Amino acid sequence: MKTQTRGQLAEDQACLYLQQQGLQLISKNYHCRHGEIDLIMQDGKQLVFVEVRYRANAAFGGALASVDTRKQSKLIATAQYYLQSKAPRASARFDVVGIDAQNRLQWIPNAFEAG
Fold first, then answer.
1. CA 96, 97, 103 angle in degrees (round to 5)?
2. Helix (H) or strand (E) holding 69
3. Among 28, 40, 44, 108, which residue has the fewest nearby CB atoms (within 10 Å)?
């Protein structure tokens, strides 16, 4: 399966799972000049910026470990841009969803902080 197709399936799987946990989808694949956020969701009054990672094997720490400080910085900059333009007063958090080749999903709410 092509990586892009597998990535899209992982995002769809993560989105469905998070919706089952009570979150509401606001946007998929939000783009701006700073980068892209896979899913933007609402959890109560809080906006949730979700990075979805699929890894076929756990070498180098697997899906969750692939959200390194460089990736976090890009996500934070993109989220700040989104908040400034669309929801300046909203509180927000960053979640990470990792999915492996056996379709096991691991959700880490509040995976890292913006500051």
1. 165
2. helix 69-86
3. 44
